[in-house]
Write a structure and sequence with these properties.
295 residues, eight-stranded mixed beta sheet, 18% strand, globular
Length: 295
């Protein structure tokens, strides 16, 4: 009888063992609410405050504004509105950028300098090997190609696409050129409009070529007093003749004249030729402007 009871107990224990083993296999583990995961560390780049992409062109090129200094009074310099036709205006802008990098103390504490070296990179790319800094030897010698480089990817003359006397067909010397389908129809001119209206620069200096002079802006409301001052300062320091009017031929849709209409002091600085940077002259003009806007 005792053996029988012992056998029953052993069988019960064996059965319980199989039961617990089976249930252990079927139990779904409860997930850890705070698992330790070895995720890779993502490096988030710091905000680049030295430049702003203000537009992308029809050709897919970026229009970049480069910033120097941290002051609240912004001075805006623009080169390359006529792309490959006035490629030297882009190079003088890059000379300015190099000058400011090498001499940051030349910028007054209250001033921020912004440089757009190539407002028309699509046109520039027709004659140079890059839309960034290049050397004069990188420019095609073909006059016909350089003329074609005056226009953007939509074959529009950007300096006929602003809202001062805008017309769909403008004049360049004795030639008809496209002013676009409307004022600010082009991404490059819209970018300048948006930037100026957002940032409200104290003054704008735009490089063109070629006539050798400094010209005030005006859109039927008279020359702003600060524009007259700016014209004289840059002209006296650089040695370029200063003039109140660009009267070589009728201009419609001009950028600096639109700036005047928007009550922004602005001047056109025309280099003497299409292939010289004339940095010494422009450096003197720039230094005088920065000194003028220092507190």
């Amino acid at each position: 009888m005792k053996k029988f009871v012992l056998v029953i107990i052993v069988l019960v224990l064996i059965g319980l063992g199989f039961y617990f083993i089976k249930n252990k296999e079927e139990v779904t583990p409860i997930p850890n609410p705070n698992p330790v995961v070895n995720e890779p560390v993502v490096q988030v780049p710091a905000e680049d405050k030295t430049k702003t992409v203000i537009s992308t062109t029809v050709g897919g090129n970026e229009v970049v504004a480069h910033h120097f200094g941290n002051g609240e009074t912004e001075i805006l310099f623009i080169g390359g509105i006529h792309g490959g036709y006035s490629w030297n205006t882009t190079l003088v802008a890059y000379e300015l950028m190099d000058y400011l990098k090498e001499n940051p103390k030349i910028i007054p504490e209250n001033v921020r300098v912004t440089v757009v070296p190539a407002l028309n990179p699509d046109g520039l790319s027709k004659v140079a090997t890059t839309t960034e800094k290049f050397a004069p030897r990188d420019v095609t010698a073909s006059a016909a190609v350089q003329v074609s480089g005056r226009f953007n990817g939509n074959n529009v003359d950007l300096n006929r696409n602003f809202d001062c006397d805008w017309q769909a067909t403008g004049k360049w010397q004795n030639k008809d050129v496209s002013g676009g389908t409307a004022a600010f129809s082009e991404p490059e001119s819209r970018a300048i409009k948006n930037y100026v209206e957002t940032r409200k620069p104290a003054a704008v200096i735009v490089w063109y070529s070629a006539a050798g002079g400094v010209f005030a802006s005006n859109c039927h409301k008279g020359i702003l007093p600060e524009t007259s001052t700016l014209t004289k300062i840059y002209g006296d320091a650089s040695g370029y003749p200063a003039s109140d009017d660009f009267d070589f031929y009728e201009i419609t849709g001009d950028m600096v004249n639109w700036l005047a209409k928007s009550n922004v002091p602005a001047i056109s600085v025309l280099l003497s030729t299409h292939d010289k940077v004339e940095w010494d002259k422009n450096k003197k003009g720039i230094d005088a402007v920065l000194k003028h806007y220092s507190k």
